[in-house]
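Note to self: user wants both folds in one dump. Writing first protein now.
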Amino acid sequence: MSNEEFDNLKEELMWEGSSVVMLSSAEQKFLEASMAYVAGKPIMSDEEYDKLKQKLKMEGSEIVVEGPRCSLRSRKVYSDLSVDYLKMLLLNVPATVVALGLFFFLDDITGFEITYLLELPEPFSFIFTWFAAVPLIVYLSQSLTKLIVRESLILKGPCPNCGTENVSFFGTILSISSGGTTNTINCSNCGTTMVYDSNTRLITLPEGSEA
C-alpha cells in the first residue's frame, strides 16, 4: 500500500482503539524498514534488520511474530515463538495459595489482629490492605516461586507443519533443568518433531525432517 493508505489505516485503527498502532520507536523503525524494503529502497542492511527484529522479539513485540513460513536461503520451514504471559502468570498460583495460607495462619496465631486491621474505618483499611497486606502476599508468592522455579520462560508458537499452537517450558524446577536454550517437542496435533530455541525465538524442524 502507499504511504497515504498506510497513514489512513493507522488513523482508523487509532480511532477504533487498536493497541497495534501504539508502537515504540524501535517498532516504528522496523515497520519503516519493512516498507522501504518492499518498495525496493532499503534503509538498513540485512544484518541491522535481523538485529532489530531479534531485539523486538526478546522484548515481546507482536509486530515481528509471524506464522509458519519457509526460508529461501536455508530452505527450512520455521515459525516464530512468543512468550505465553498467561502461563507465566499461572506459575505463581501455587505459591500464592501457600502465601495466603501463611497470611491467614499468621492472623490466627496473633489473635486475628490482621483481621482487625482490615476492618478499620476508611481510609485506614484501604491503606493497610493495598500498601501492606497485598504487597506482602505478592512478595511471599514471588519469593516462593523463585525458590522452586528459577529462570523460567514459557514460549508458544504454531507448528510449522499444521499450525497448531504448542507450548514449551525453559528453566529449572528444584535444580532440575529443562535442558538449556533448546527443547525438542512433538506437536500435540500432528506429532511433528520441533526444536524450540529460546535464544532466537524460533521453531525449526530437525535436520532431515519434512513439513
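First done. Writing the second protein, which came from a different request thread.
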Amino acid sequence: MRNFKYVSTIKAALEAECPLKVSCADIVALSAREGIVMLGGPRIPIKTGRRDSRVSYLAEVEKFIPNHNDSIATALSVFNSIGIDDEGVVALYGAHSVGRVHCANLVHRLYPTVDPTLNPVYAEYLKGRCPTPDPDPDAVVYARNDRETPMILDNNYYKNIINHKGLLIVDQQLASDPRTTPFVQKMAADNSYFHEQFSRAIALLSENNPLTGDQGEVRKDCRYVNI
C-alpha cells in the first residue's frame, strides 16, 4: 500500500501505448496478482475490463474490509455478504503469512497481562519487539506475521495459529472457531490446498461488483478523475 507510486508509473507507460484503454482498477488488480506470484504464491487468473469510478468509495471500503480488531464472526459475516464462503475467508487470511503488524495493533494482547491464548514463549518474543504498552505511533516498531518465511505466501500462517502464535485476535479465533478450524487444519497440512483456495477467494474478491461497460471511466491519471 506504500507503493501506489508504481501504479502511476505503470499507468504512464500504458497511456503512452494504449491511451484510455486500461483502467486504474485493472492495474491495481493485476498488480496484486503479480505481487502474489513474487511472494511465491499461485498465479491467479484475473479478469480485466474494470472501469474507474468518478467518486470515492472510502465508506464502502471501511464497510466491507474487516479491520485488525474485528472478531472472526464479523469477518465471516462481512466476507459472506459479498459471496465468499467460510473456506474462502480462511484462505484469504493466509495473506497474513507475509508482512508485519505494528506494535500499536497488538500491544493490547501483551499488556497489562498477556492474552492467555498466546503461546507464552512467543509472547515473550513479542514483548521484546514491542517493549511498552504505549508505542510511539510515529515509530516503525512491529512484529513479523511469520518469523520462519516472512516473505513467502505459504501455509506457515496456519501452522503458527494452531500453535497459538497468531499476532491478531482474529488470527487466533480463526484457529479456534468451529466454523473455521477444519479449514485451518487442512491448510496447515497441505500448502497446495491453501494455494488453490486462496486463488479461488482472491478471484471472487477481485470480481466483487466492478464497474464495467459504459459505467464510470478510464482515468488518464489514477490520482484524479478525468476533467
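Dump finished. Worth passing along: The chain has a mean pLDDT of 94.
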